[in-house]
Write a structure and sequence with these properties.
The chain is α+β, with helices and mostly antiparallel strands. It has 28 helices and 20 strands. Strands 1, 2, 3, 4, 5, 9, 10 and 11 form an eight-stranded antiparallel sheet that branches. Strands 14-13-17-18-19-16-15 form a seven-stranded antiparallel sheet. Strands 6-8-7 form a three-stranded antiparallel sheet. The N terminus is likely disordered.
């Protein structure tokens, strides 16, 4: 019998408020939580939040990695500055560095095309397809099960995407206990309308990232465009701004301490139901090593590109992303070592096992699953250092591009429905956009330096942990000689044409036979390693098939156990639309310290040094000194910049609209405090705090600093 965990445990969640603010809830669950939401301050009907085609949910959109929302009837979209960072970087040059100086389109005609492949997704329907996905898989094992699940999912997606205006995906919940088909309108023409200067949008930079107090204006605006018929279309000068069914009003009043807030968005990934063996590996091996290698990756970029050069601009978005992960992993490791999560995880598994073994029926059903899953996890970690080093070698853009082109040609030999995900006809616009995007995000010297470094680390692996095909391709059979490797790479980069966009796009349409015949050294490499990498992939799929059997069984046991002790269960985040709620409030990060929930313009000015990253625009500084706050104080004596709340969020929630009880936009979620980063694995109500850009600060910058009255006139401002 398949449990219905999401509904079955909600009544238990309602029984007390201790854990009430924990959880990333699916919209259809919100009516079940109405009594809590109303008590906390929700003023609109909770049922409206459950309906994706009604306000306010139809104003909340995905950017495919970040969240955003419509804030005007003319397709104006607000999100985080760091979510638009790639498009800002893409449109920047040393002569016109809008990343540094900001940009404002005074009319839609001046909007700049976003980075190739940018999309806006408007979720319209969510359908339970569990029975259809699992059909015919009950008796299958390993890779056969994996392939059957994938085939069923592809069939559902293909049927859903018979209307080419939509993007559809099947998402797994509770480790494969449930599956939902999500159908989203795919808007393909996205343009940059406004971004503040770096001294606003990234004020504090990586120093302040994940920290409080914070004074960052992490906001930017896109505009969504469609064809004249109102349907999604690729970029064209003839396209017109999209007219959303609804859009959010923006509050100039803001919020006060203790106020109810609700965040709607697309949180990426949490891992709160992973077993102790996975926690041990991630925090004691994977995160420390990733942090070390990612730090070196950033250093190599900076050492091989001058500040302000085209090469550095090309990698600014990459640097920002890596630095975010470096600090993220650092906090994760620190919190893990200081906290009790691992001990509590092990204790939970002991308690769960005791509960299972105390009942003959439960023991028969669930008695072996924890040990089986632990064995599978151990198997997945068996070659972790080899897999890590090969992964970094293959991050070279020349290698990754060659491998993707080669794989595409290989997959194109099959019928579309049998091709690997990522290489079907539905994926081709993204594929081609990636080839074009590389033009402004690549430098040969930087890429070469990165590849050289990680080849040396790969070559240091024991012989039995290396692939002979890679050793032969890079002359590593007799060890690593840096000078020889440098000469080899110089020759490969000089002879390859993959750095040229025209050549890349030309390869995109070629057959496997044509690519095999190519003398491009990186395509030769892709050909040389294809068979062994494909064999490894098939092994991984076989293991994934086993995990896809074990995880749902364990989750079913966890759900039943938690029900027995009146503990609520919600699904881990998986990039689908969720709602979380809480209140505005500070916290105590450590003994003797109390963090208040708001920062101010005066605090920003006090932090300012006129040296990046604390270099607010001169005009902004003058306005603060003159106390020209306008109508954006919301009852305070200053303009609040950022604020804290205890909503439960994670990566992917960036750009999510923060709403008050009337569903008015009072801020944009953009970060979490340092102490709460481990929330991806372990929720702690004492330290869990999210950081939001205050809507009052956003409006003040737009009005007083950047003179963006044309955009303000489009928006409904609540004063």
């Amino acid at each position: 019998m398949r449990l219905k965990p999401l509904v079955a445990t909600l009544a238990l969640a309602l029984s007390g408020n201790v854990l009430a603010d924990e959880g990333m809830w699916q919209p259809h669950q919100l009516p079940e939580l109405e009594s809590i939401l109303k008590a906390k301050g929700l003023e609109i009907d909770a049922k409206s939040i459950s309906k994706l085609t009604e306000f306010p949910m139809n104003a909340v959109i995905s950017l495919g990695g970040c969240t955003a929302s419509f804030v005007s009837p003319k397709g104006l979209v607000v999100t985080n500055h760091h979510c638009a960072y790639g498009s800002i970087q893409y449109n920047s040059t040393p002569e016109n560095n809008i990343l540094q100086n900001g940009f404002l389109a005074k009319t839609p005609a001046e909007d700049l095309p976003a980075a190739p492949g940018s999309r806006v997704y408007v979720t319209e329907t969510v359908t339970d397809v569990t029975d259809k996905v699992l059909k015919g898989t009950k008796k299958l094992k390993a890779k056969a099960r994996y392939d059957a699940l994938e085939k069923n999912e592809k069939a559902l997606v293909a049927e859903c995407e018979s209307d080419k205006n939509y993007r559809c995906n099947v998402y797994s919940f509770h480790g494969g206990l449930e599956f939902y088909l999500i159908k989203s309108l795919e808007i393909k023409d996205v343009r940059l309308a406004y971004t503040p200067a770096m001294g606003v949008g990234k004020y504090g930079g990586d120093i302040d990232n994940w920290m409080w107090p914070r004074h960052t204006g992490d906001f930017a605006f896109y505009r969504a465009y469609v064809g004249k018929d109102g349907k999604p279309a690729e970029f064209s000068q003839d396209n017109v701004p999209y007219e959303p069914a609804s859009h959010l009003s923006v509050s100039a009043k803001g919020v006060q301490e203790g106020d109810f807030v609700m965040v709607t968005g697309y949180p990426g990934r949490t891992n709160r139901y992973r077993i102790a063996a996975e926690v041990d590996y991630v925090f004691n091996t994977a995160y420390p090593k990733s942090r070390e290698h990612n730090s070196k990756y950033v250093s190599l970029i900076e050492e091989n590109s001058e500040d302000g050069s085209q090469a550095r601009i090309a990698y600014e978005s990459t640097i920002a992303g890596y630095n975010n992960y470096i600090k993220n992993y650092g906090s994760m490791i620190e919190s893990f070592n200081k906290g009790t999560m691992f001990e509590r995880k092990k204790q939970f598994e002991q308690d769960l096992s005791a509960w299972i073994n105390s009942d003959r029926k439960r023991k028969k059903q669930y008695g072996k699953v924890l040990n089986e899953l632990s064995a599978l996890v151990a198997e997945s970690q068996q070659h972790n250092e080899r897999d890590r080093m090969v992964g970094y070698v293959h991050r070279s853009q020349m290698i990754s591009t060659a491998r993707r082109l080669y794989r595409l040609a290989y997959e194109n030999q099959k019928p579309n429905e049998e091709r690997e995900s990522g290489y079907q006809e539905r994926d081709m616009p993204r594929f081609e956009a990636g080839l074009k995007r590389m033009t402004r995000r690549f430098d040969a010297n930087v890429d070469k330096a990165i590849l050289l470094h990680f080849l040396e680390l790969y070559a240091a692996l024991p012989q039995n942990e290396r692939y002979s095909e890679i050793d032969i391709a890079f002359n590593l059979k007799n060890g690593f000689n840096k000078a020889d490797a440098q000469t080899l790479l110089d020759d490969m980069y000089a002879k390859s044409t993959l750095a040229d966009e025209t050549a890349r796009v030309d390869f995109y349409g070629q057959t496997l036979e044509q690519l095999k015949a190519s003398d491009d050294p990186f395509l030769r490499y892709a050909d040389a390693i294809f068979a062994v990498m494909k064999a490894e992939e098939d092994k991984e799929k076989a293991l994934a098939g086993k995990l896809q059997s074990a995880r749902p069984e364990l989750m079913e046991a966890i759900i039943a156990y938690n029900q027995s002790i009146n503990k609520p269960v919600y699904a881990d985040a998986n990039s689908t639309l969720r709602v979380t709620y809480g209140t505005v409030g500070g916290y105590s990060p450590q003994d003797g310290l109390v963090a208040t929930p708001f920062t101010s313009l005066e605090g920003l000015l006090a932090k300012n040094t006129d040296v990046e990253p604390f270099d607010a625009p001169k005009k902004q500084q003058e306005l603060i000194k003159a106390k020209l706050f306008g109508d954006y104080t919301g009852g305070m004596n200053t303009v609040p910049v950022n604020f804290l709340s205890n909503v439960d969020t994670t990566g992917g929630n960036s750009g999510s609209p923060t709403l008050n009880g009337k569903a008015e936009l009072v801020g944009l979620l953009f970060d979490g405090v340092y102490e709460s980063i481990i929330g991806d694995w372990d929720y702690n109500p004492v330290y869990n705090r999210s950081i939001h850009v205050d809507s009052r600060y956003m409006l003040w910058v737009m009005d007083k600093v950047d003179n963006a009255q044309n955009l303000l006139d489009e928006m409904k401002i609540v004063k």
